Amino acid sequence: MALTSAPAASYALAQADLPVTDPAEKATLAAVALGLLALLAAAFDADPTRARLSFIVALALVSGGTLAWSWLKFGRRPAGVHQNNLWQRASTSRGAIAWVTGVVLTGFYVVLYWFPGLLENLIRTLDPFSQTLRAKPADQWFLYGTFYTLAVLLMGARALWKYRHSRYQLIRTCSVMFFQLGFAFLLPGLLLAFQQPEYYFTYFWPLKYDYLFPGTVGYLVKDGQALGVFMVFWGAVMSFLATPVLTYFYGKRWYCSWVCGCGGLAETAGDPYRQLSDKSRQAWKWEVRIIYPILALIVGLTALLWVGASGTVPALGAVTQPLSRFYGFAIGAVFSGVIGVGFYPIMGNRVWCRFGCPMAAYLGLLQKHFSRFRISTNGGQCISCGNCSNVCEMGIDVKQYAQRGEPIIRASCVGCGMCSTACPRGVLNLENGPREGRYQSSQLIHADSLRILS
After folding, report:
1. In whole angstroms, what separates CA 424 from the centre of its chain?
2. Fewest beta carbons within 10 Å, which of 184, 252, 267, 436?
3. DSSP secondary structure letter of residue 71
4. What is the rounded distance in angstroms from the CA atom of residue 375 to the CA atom of residue 432?
5. Phi/psi at 428 (nearest 5 deg)?
6. pLDDT band at residue 207 under the 50/70/90 scheme
7. Nearest to 446 by CA among 374, 378, 398, 384
8. Residue 378 CB neighbour total at 10 angstroms
9. Distance between CA atoms of 395 and 399, rounded to whole angstroms?
10. What's the pLDDT at 315?
11. Is 250:432 a contact under the CB 8 Å cutoff?
C-alpha cells in the first residue's frame, strides 16, 4: 500500500472538512462567471452593437450574481465575524484560485496602463454613458473608473451584509461607497460636462502628487477661473491644514478608512484577503524602509519642481522632469496599481497603503506622534483567540498588545476597527482620548483612576 506524505494528508483532510456550497450559492457564482465570460466576449467583439449588448449583460450578471451571493452567504447566517475555513479555501489562502485571480488583476492593470488599445472595444461600449455624464467619449480611465466604482459598490454591499452587526462598520462602509460614487466618479464627470477641469476632491497631495505640481496649479488657475483657484486652495488647505487637524482628533482613519478611494477598494473588494497581511517583524522593517523614502521622494520632487518653475535654477528642469516621469511610472502606476491591487490575493488588501502610499506615511507620522487616537485594550479579558490579529490588514499583531493590555498606537494603523469588530470579548476599543496617558495600559489607567477616587 502506498504511503501518503504528511503535508498531502493534511491538505486532503483540510479539503474534506470544507463545507459543501449549497446549490443556490453555486447558481449565483455561476451567474458571475457567465458575466465575466460575457465581458470577455464584449472585449473581442468588433461589432459595436453586439459588444454593447454583451457588456450590459455582463454587468447585469456580475452585479446580480454578486448581490445575490452576498445575501445567501452572509444574510442567512447569524450576524458576527465568521472566520471559518479562511485558511483552507484556495481563494483566500494563496491557493490556486488566489494566484489565478492575482494574475488576472495584474494583467488587467498592465493592459490598462500600457496597452489600452486592447481595451478599445470595451471603452467604446461606454461611449453613450460617458457622453451623458461627461459630454465626451469614453477613454481607458473612464472604463477603469466605472469598473472601480462598481467593485466598491458591489463588494461594499457584501460588506454591509457581512458586518451588519457592527454600526461602526456599516457607517464606514457606506462612507467609502458614497465618496467613491459621488466624489471620485460622478462629480469629476460632471465637471467635464460643464467644461471645467476634471478634479477629484477626495484625493490630496502627496497621494495625488501632481495636484500641487507647478504645471497642474498653473493649469487650474489659468485665466483666473474661480473654480480652478478654489481647487488649488482646497488641495492646499486639505493637505497642510485639515489633514493635521483631523488626524489629531481622529487619527488617520478619517481618511484611509472613510474617504480614500484606495482604502475604499481595499475595504470592500479586498476584504476577503485582509488576513493575508504579513505580521512578521521583518515585514514591518520593509514597510519602514520603503514607505518613508517614497514620502521623502515626493516631498523633494515637489520642492524641486517649484524651485525650477521659479527660474532660480534653470538647470533643474533636466533633473526634475525625468524624475517626475519616473515617479509617475514606478510609484503612480506600477506600485499603486499593478502591485497595489493585483497582489491583493497574495499579499493582502493593503499592500499599497502599507508599503507605498505617501499619504499613509504622512498621516502615520501625525498619528504616531501628535494624534489623540488610539486603540485601547483590556488584557484581563483577552482569551488569546487571535481573531484580532487575523483580520488586521496592516500587519499589526494586535493580539500581542491585547494580551498585555497595552494601547495600540502604530503609524500604520488605519483605524478600520476590524480588530474590535472581530473580538468576541470586547477587549479592543477605538478611542480619541486625551493625549495624557495615551501610552499607558488600560490596567494602569484604571489603577490611577481608583487611586484618584480614593
Report:
1. 26
2. 436
3. I
4. 9
5. -110, 135
6. very high
7. 378
8. 18
9. 12
10. 81
11. yes
Query: Which three three-digit cell numbers place residue 403?
Result: 494580551
367 touches 373 (CB < 8 A): yes
Place of cell 473580538: 423
pLDDT digits (tens, 9 = 90+) for 354-394: 999 999 999 999 999 999 999 999 888 999 999 999 999 99
Backbone angles phi, psi at 82, to 5 degrees: -110, 115
Are the C-beta atoms of 373 and 415 separated by less than 8 Å?
A: yes
Give the C-alpha separation, 366 to 239, whole Å. 12
List of E strands, 121-215: none
What is 249-294 written as a DSSP string? HHTTHHHHTTT-HHHHHHHHTTGGGGGGS--SHHHHHHHHHHHHHH
Separation between Cα atoms, residue 212 and residue 203, nearest integer Å = 11
Q: Round to whole Å and give the CA distance between 248 and 202.
A: 19
* Joined grid coordinates for residue 123: 471603452
What is residue 345's predicted lDDT score, i.e. its pLDDT? 97
pLDDT at 225: 83
- Euclidean distance between CA atoms 276 and 390, whole angstroms: 8
Q: In the 8-state DSSP scheme, what is residue 428?
A: E
Terminal Cα distance for the chain, rounded: 74
Q: What is the pTM for the complete model shown?
A: 0.91
Amino acid identity for residue 144 in this structure: Y
Which of the following CATH numbers is that of domain 372-453: 3.40.50.620, 3.30.70.20, 3.40.120.10, 3.10.180.10? Answer: 3.30.70.20
Rg (CA), the chain: 24
In this structure, which amino acid lies at residue 296?
Answer: A
